[in-house]
Design goal:
By secondary structure, the chain is α+β, with helices and mostly antiparallel strands. The protein has 5 helices and 4 strands. The two termini are 23 Å apart.
Length: 145
C-alpha cells in the first residue's frame, strides 16, 4: 500500500503512468545493484526503469524532484529513493525500514485514513509546492544510502 501511494503520487503529480511503467515483485534474481534484490521480496518498485536505469542521474526536472522529496517527507522516511543511492537508480523506491517498525505502521494507517476519507488528502490532493510542505521536505534533499 505504501509503494502504491508512491506510484499514485508519481502518476498524479509527475507524469501519467501507463501499463508496464511500474515494476515490482519479481522472481528474476539478476540485479545490477544489491538494492534491486528488494524486488524479490516485494519491498521495492521501479517506476519506468528503462527511462531511469541504474547509474543514470539528474533525469528529473527540478519540479519533479520537488515532488519526489515531498513524497519521501510525507512518508516519514519509510521510503528511500534510488536517486539518492551511491549508484543511483531514479526509478527505484523501496521500503527503508523493517515491516514491524512503528513508522511503517504509522504511515500505513495515515494512507488508509486518506483512502477512507473524503478525498482531501493523499495522492492527487497535495500541493508539494506549498511553502510548509517545502520546509518539511527540505531535510530529504541530501539523503544517501
Amino acid at each position: 500500500m505504501i509503494l502504491l501511494h508512491v506510484a499514485r503520487r508519481f502518476h498524479y503529480e509527475i507524469d501519467s503512468l501507463r501499463a508496464g511503467d511500474v515494476h515490482g515483485w519479481t522472481i528474476n534474481r539478476e540485479v545490477a545493484e544489491a538494492y534491486e534484490s528488494n524486488y524479490l521480496s516485494g519491498s521495492a518498485i521501479a517506476i519506468r526503469p528503462v527511462a531511469y536505469p541504474v547509474g543514470a542521474k539528474d533525469n528529473l526536472y527540478s519540479n519533479e524532484l520537488v515532488v519526489v522529496r515531498d513524497i519521501l517527507a510525507e512518508l516519514d522516511g519509510v521510503v528511500a529513493w534510488g536517486g539518492d543511492f551511491k549508484t543511483p537508480k531514479e526509478s527505484h523506491f523501496e521500503i527503508a525500514l523493517k515491516p514491524s517498525h512503528p513508522r511503517v505502521k504509522g504511515v500505513a494507517r495515515k494512507i488508509l485514513g486518506w483512502n477512507d476519507g473524503p478525498g482531501n488528502h493523499g495522492a492527487g490532493a497535495t500541493d508539494a509546492f506549498d511553502p510548509k510542505r517545502l520546509t518539511v521536505s527540505r531535510p530529504f534533499t541530501q539523503r544517501t544510502s
